[in-house]
UniProtKB/TrEMBL annotation:
PROSITE patterns given in the database record: AAA, GNAT
SMART domains (alphabetical): AAA
Protein name in UniProt: GNAT family N-acetyltransferase
Record keywords, A-Z: ATP-binding, Nucleotide-binding, Transferase
Family stated for the protein in its record: Belongs to the AAA ATPase family.
Keyword Transferase: yes
InterPro entries named among the record's database cross-references: 26S_Proteasome_ATPase, AAA+_ATPase, Acyl_CoA_acyltransferase, ATPase_AAA_core, ATPase_AAA_CS, GNAT_dom, P-loop_NTPase
Pfam annotation, one family: Acetyltransf_1
Length: 424
């Protein structure tokens, strides 16, 4: 006769079952099914069995049924009752109940050497080694997803940061100044580092400021919302009301990267401006102050003309960093061309020659040239019925015909702005 009594789980057993679970584990690895999953199965009245000795709970086995299959989401044993056959007895009783409900396959997924592992083997379960568990915690709730939809936001795809070709100097600066303090806030706080709340990216058009903003959101695994001044201006009350409403909605998100491109359109210097433009800047300044008070959020603004922005808007305390993003250097251009050539399956092209020839071109210019050659090669393949491939001469010809987005004057202004406006 066994020393324990087996019976079905009852709601009043819940507290004791939770305490037993805390005593039961024999590994530092987190269980595959969290305690919340176990409680949900118990509250959902899925089959569960407990073992009682002298009125105290010494073992439990909890399942979750999915049609004709079931998972054993927890097998917990009091340390004093291990290696006495209790685990096997609990599983046998649980299997009987599952079989009566039409279950034909029972599975369990445990960390290595966890409590009850031998009981599964003794009960006839087949151990399958060589499996890898993949899991992902979604960072967005249903409420957040609805709010993001209203704001026109999204969850950036994973890997955008790694996909940014070249621009290693800019990536390193953004990684260290922005991403690290936000992704490791406790460690940053321990060193007296305040995670940034607002960042200004400046540089000529087409240099990848928008790409960097989205990549930062992807790197942090935070939602991304881009605010368009033209859309905000359609709000009742005009642009100031649109800004106020948008930032009020954004305050309901736990984490978010907010991006405003060409911020000079709404935050230009107020000297000589109209009363309406002054009102827009004032509203934006008020919204920025409130935005900075909440953790877990980052405002990224981008401008092609940092010198045209209102001085109060650029004051210390508004933006933590003012970072230049300019045309790519030779190493970055080589990385970009290598990326485009891989996509086009053009492996015999002289990448260095393309990099040297495209000095002064922006990432957008380089992408345009690569697409042009790809289109030509595609049409050649269709017309000839054979696989055509772009040559170095093809790319050099198209590069030579590409008009640079950044003029010499823009480049000179940008270099001056690095000296006068950068805040690294």
């Amino acid at each position: 006769m066994t020393a324990w009594h087996l019976r079905d789980f009852e709601p009043e057993d819940l507290e004791a079952a939770v305490l037993l679970d805390q005593r039961s584990t024999t590994t530092s690895e987190s269980p595959v099914f969290a305690m919340a999953d176990v409680v949900a199965a118990l509250n959902g009245r899925h089959p569960a069995v407990v073992a009682v000795v002298g009125g105290g709970l010494v073992g439990s086995a909890v399942s979750r049924i999915e049609v004709d299959r079931a998972w054993v989401v927890r097998l917990a044993l009091d340390p004093q009752w291990r290696d006495q056959g209790l685990g096997s007895a609990l599983l046998s009783a649980l299997e009987h109940r599952l079989t009566m409900l039409g279950v034909r396959k029972v599975r369990a997924l445990l960390p290595a050497n966890e409590t009850g592992s031998q009981a599964f083997v003794n009960s006839g379960f087949v151990r399958r080694d060589g499996l890898t568990l993949f899991e992902k915690t979604e960072t967005v709730t249903a409420q957040t997803a609805t709010l993001l939809q209203d704001l026109g936001g999204s969850i950036p795809a994973a890997g955008l940061w790694e996909a940014v070709a070249g621009m290693q100097a800019e990536k390193s600066l953004i990684e260290r100044r922005i991403v690290l303090p936000l992704s490791q806030p406790e460690q940053a706080h321990g060193h007296g580092v305040q995670p940034p709340r607002a960042v200004m990216l400046f540089g000529p058009p087409g240099t990848g400021k928008t790409t960097f903003a989205k990549a930062v959101a992807s790197r942090l695994a935070w939602p991304f919302v881009e605010l368009f001044p033209s859309r905000l201006a359609t709000t009742d009350g005009g642009l100031p009301a649109g800004i106020r409403l948008a930032f009020d909605q954004l305050s309901r998100l736990e984490r978010v990267v907010v991006f405003i491109d060409e911020i000079e359109e709404i935050a230009a210097a107020r000297e000589g401006g109209t009363s309406s433009s002054i009102g827009v800047v004032n509203e934006l300044l008020k919204s920025l102050v409130a935005f900075r008070d909440e953790p877990g959020r980052l405002l990224v603004c981008a401008t092609n003309s940092v010198r045209s922005l209102d001085s109060a808007f650029m004051r210390h305390g508004r933006f933590d960093f003012v970072l230049p993003v300019g045309p790519p250097d030779e190493e970055a251009r080589m990385a970009m061309w290598a990326h485009h050539l891989r996509s086009a399956q053009s492996s015999e092209v002289d990448v260095r020659a393309l990099s040297l020839a495209s000095d002064g071109l922006t990432p957008a210019d380089i992408a345009h040239a690569a697409r042009t050659v790809a289109q030509e090669v595609f049409e050649c393949s269709i017309d000839s019925g054979q696989r055509c491939r772009g040559t170095t001469d093809d790319y050099l010809r198209v590069i030579g015909a590409t008009r640079p987005t950044v003029t010499q004057q823009m480049r000179a202004d940008f270099l001056d702005d690095i000296t006068t406006a950068s805040r690294l």
